[in-house]
Amino acid sequence: xxxTDNREPVLNILFIGDIFGRPGRNIVRERLREIVKxxxxxLVIANCENAAAGFGIxxxxxxxxxxxxxxxxxxxxxxxxxxxxxxxxxxxxxxPHSPARRxxxxxxxxxxxxxxxxxxxxxxxxxxxxxxxxxxxFMGSSDDPFTYAxxxxxxxxxxxxxxxxxxxxTSEKVAFGWYLDGRVTAxxxxxxxxxxxxxxxLAKGTAYITDVGMTGPYDGVIGVxxxxxxxxxxxxxxxxxxxxxxxxxxCAVVVECDDETGRAKRIERxxxx
Length: 273
Known about the structure:
The protein is α/β, with parallel strands linked by helices and 273 residues long.
């Protein structure tokens, strides 16, 4: 929310970790309005790459999540799991006002692929940018996120820059946080679905957490029915994974940003049932 004459201007950003399947979508639907009000959230960002039964996202589900009040959505390595999302990205070609423009895929994917990896907008008159990048350690091939971020930041004019770094290795996430410290407002990790307890403001003012965690069913293995995953480990045979359903939690962070400097003032980790 905007500050008054007696208060430094701030923008409160709510970021929701990997929304997994119907259980994740349902808890977002049930709790988002309350969380936004409680934390005076001005801008809502969410990772939605697992929204469709744990694998990918479809155009109708993207529209459903936007209608709930999410402003910008990020993805990762599962972005192409539902092929119909390609046409949804293509809808935004030449139409910067299309809602599809606010659905991102990792910016460091090959440039000829559909979609975009950054979004620049305004909230309450405050300019902001969202960047979606993917790591390379234990992940599919993509351009170097470190040098790619350098190129992106040269073009972005907004002082408030929020980065979703979709990566597997803790070391890569931590290193990237230090690399961008002081140059972005916040860098949050996604992908591993396990929340970490290392939220902090780095030395030069960047809010950081290694992984926000999953918004979905925790009575399973990173969102999948535990019996299916255990059998896969025991047999080594391929199996069709299905979302679990129990112990549903919403994992998120709230980042309070200084509008004038672009630095983070506070980061708070949330895990709600």
